[in-house]
Design goal:
By secondary structure, this protein is α+β, with helices and mostly antiparallel strands. The protein is 27% helix and 17% strand. A two-stranded antiparallel sheet has the order 1-2. A hairpin with a 7-residue loop joins β4 and β5. α2 packs parallel to α3. The longest helix has 17 residues. It is globular and about 40 Å long.
Amino acid sequence: LRGKKVLPICPEVLGGLPTPRIPSEIQSDGRILNAKGDDVSQCFCRGKELTLALMQKHHSTKVILKDGSPSCGFSTIYDGTFTNRKIPGMGETAKYLLQNGVTILNQT
């Protein structure tokens, strides 16, 4: 990334969730619930849309994501049971960015 502008973005914060926040996981029905049982799907939806909008505004075409997250997981996500078990899958933002032509770079 030498010579490139880096935009630090957290889709979950952009979507309206606080820092620190209650852990959230994608459920088998597609909803995203936090550990208290609150449906926070709308925050994740808003976050993915605002992330893409910011990337487009800055002509960004590549992203580095934090795997495992319900937003940014790109190869694994937590299984929705809040038991710390990961499964293959993609987070909401990762999926959305890929669908819109953004390239996901490996963190390593």
